[in-house]
Amino acid sequence: MLEMRKILHQYYPLLALVIVFLIYSTPYVLQSPLCSVHLWRQTDSLSFCRYYYENGLKFFDTGIQAYLFKDFESNKTIGEFPIVYYLTACIWKITGENLWVLRVITLTLFSMALYSTFRAFRLLGVSRFYSTFSLILACTSPAVVIYSTNFLPDMHAVSISLIASFFYIRFVIFQRIGHWWISLLLFCLAALIKPTAVIPFGVIGLLWILDITSLFRLKTHQLFPSLLITIMGFFLVFVVNAMYLLWVAHYNNTYGGWFTPNAIFTPWNQPQEDINRYLEMAPYFLFPKVFSASMFLFLGASLLIVFIDRNKETILSRLVLLFTLIGSVAYILLFFKWDVHDYYSLALLPFPLVILATLYFRIKTIQFTSAKRIAAVLGVALISFNVFYASQHVQLRYAPKHNKNYSLVTNTKEAELMKYHSWYHVEHFRAFDNIESELNRLGITRDVKVISMPDESFQASLFMMHRKGWTGGQKDNFTKEGIKRKIDCGAQFLLINDFQRACNMGLDTLFIGTPIDTIQNILVYRLRE
Known about the structure:
Helix 6 (128-138) runs antiparallel to helix 15 (350-363), helix 10 packs across helix 14 (315-334) and helix 14 packs antiparallel against helix 15 (350-363). 61% of the residues lie in helices and 4% in strands. A 5-stranded mixed β-sheet has the order 2-1-3-5-4. The protein contains 21 helices and 5 strands. The chain is mainly α.
């Protein structure tokens, strides 16, 4: 019994996180098919994996299923550093092509980030209970929970950045140069995948500026190694990223591809109508995906408590919090296109974690036992509601109940939007998942190029039915000239999964004849003999 208590004491943080992820139906999500919101971005990632899988696993030869480049004749392109996609393709060589592989890789990276953050909290002197409480609270962000299994590069980069931060803290505590280099290599990898996910690295850079200018120094620990080694480390990160960008430019210039990092969208350079749309959508779509209203209030109050603290011993933690706040605000202003891009919020995950860590050093000085008990009760209530809140958002994303009222956790607009996306996917897109045998029957093999409309993504429906070609995302496909150009490039069949929507977008101006077959809700037309 004593041994069991020791084991529970040692591993209860991990057990608590496992329980939370079970509440979020993570095992179900790991094996669920593609669905609903951001299907387009998920299939972009998966398309890179499939290209590797089917074309010989050559790391510097990447492409997708849509022929978008060199006047619609090339499908070769490269964007973020494709290490995760390459690893997925390698595993597919053993398991076969399965979505769960990439989901498990994403969840594993995120779990490593959570564990690293817990270890970092402990190294900083935060209690085991509060460290566990903080991690679970961070995992009550619906966006964090949803994308922890949805393989967008933002989550991969943020996870690696948090692990890198842990190794930097290990360097500061133990002064082992190996931890410094591991930290920088991981920050470098995170930046290669998604440059916007390295706010912690920017914080370290600002601390270094204070250090070399003697504006701030720790008495007990060095924040950095020698000047030469520090400069070499930062130089390495920037040089490697610059070299990769040059390679990307060369590859895409060669094959006509697009490089798609986070383009800068500052509010002062955007049309007023776009800004109004973002601001209108934020309260009913973006904010609910980031945190509950109660969590926003808690973080705001915590921020106020921390900054009015005059304890000189916490000056470093408050500097880190200030720099993280500056980095977060700068990120929001530089990448202001936040209409349906809730996954942009993942880059801000370090901010609530730093608030929670800094808050600990403030509240541990409270002398009154009754005050601590009240805080503990309120904390349990907050975390209980937020776990429920996030679990309901997971349900809204994957399997919303159309007769259920979600007003306790969100507003009517967001709930109806999620229900609509779910209905539309089931009604018009799900058929693509099980259409391959029927396509083969019609002679539409994997080598035959098709046009899929009115799919407005780059390649979502193409990936789902395992075919190459074009989608309604190329707006010229709703013109006779656009269709003719695709036919000249090899398109042999046209598939329409929502005829009415396609007509509303301009299909009714085209003469496409009579479908040769109907597969569930998908009409199939022959474009040429």
